[in-house]
Design goal:
6-stranded antiparallel β-sheet, 4-stranded antiparallel β-sheet, Isoamylase early set domain-containing protein, Ig-like_fold, Ig_E-set, AMPK1_CBM
Length: 100
C-alpha cells in the first residue's frame, strides 16, 4: 500500500511503502528511484506490515517491486499502476503527481 504526503514548499513527495506477506521474514524495496538496489524495510510488529519511506521528486512515475526473503518478487497490490517488465512479469508503479 502506498501513502503519499505532499509538501507546500518542496518539489518532492514522501511516499510510505507498506507491504504485508504471511511468509515474509525480510522484505526489501527495490525500484528505479534507488537504482534497483535493495533497501530493507522495517517490520512494524504491531501491524504485521513492513514499511519504508522514500522522498521522490514530484510529477514523476517510478517502477518498483518488493523482494521477499531474498528470493521471491511481488508487487504492491494497491500501486497506482502496473507495467510489463523485460522479465515477463509486471512492475508496480508509484506516481508522484500532486492531485488537487
Amino acid at each position: 500500500m502506498l501513502h503519499k504526503r505532499f509538501f507546500k514548499t518542496k518539489d518532492e513527495a514522501e511516499i510510505t511503502f507498506e507491504f504485508a506477506h504471511p511468509d515474509a521474514q525480510e522484505v526489501c524495496l527495490i525500484g528505479e528511484f534507488n537504482s534497483w538496489q535493495p533497501v530493507p524495510m522495517k517490520l512494524n510488529k504491531k501491524q504485521g506490515v513492513f514499511k519504508c519511506k522514500q522522498r521522490l521528486p514530484l510529477d514523476q512515475q517510478y517502477h518498483f517491486r518488493y523482494l521477499i526473503n531474498g528470493e521471491f518478487w511481488d508487487n504492491d497490490h494497491k500501486a497506482d499502476a502496473y507495467e510489463a517488465n523485460s522479465f515477463g512479469t509486471e512492475n508496480s508503479i508509484v506516481n508522484t503527481q500532486r492531485i488537487n
